[in-house]
Specification:
Number of strands: 5
CATH topology: SH3 type barrels
Helix content: 10-25%
CATH architecture: Roll
Radius of gyration: 13 Å
Strand content: over 45%
Order of helices and strands: HEEEEEH
Strand order of the largest sheet: 4-3-2-1-5
Largest sheet: 5 strands, antiparallel
Shape: globular
Number of domains: 1
């Protein structure tokens, strides 16, 4: 399921919420995926537009970001 949200963000350039575990502990982040290569997710955040790398194993969960219901038909029909 995590990969599905990562692809959603990558293909539509939409923000998603992820729960990650890294050297800072477990935390929630809003990211936009810029590319996925060899088990590494490259992303940008609202704070830092610079691309950062995150190992796929570090992502515990993913979901739509606040305010996004995933209904891409609204966006395509100009009702967004």
């Amino acid at each position: 399921m995590v990969e599905r949200f990562l692809r959603y963000s990558l293909e539509r350039q939409r923000k998603i919420a992820v729960i990650v575990q890294d050297d800072q502990g477990i935390r929630r982040m809003n990211i936009i995926v810029t590319r996925i290569e060899n088990g590494t997710v490259y992303h940008a955040t609202a704070r830092s537009k610079k691309e950062k790398a995150l190992a796929m194993e570090q992502i515990l969960s993913a979901s739509y970001a606040r305010g996004d219901d995933g209904d891409t038909m609204k966006q395509e029909n100009g009702k967004f």
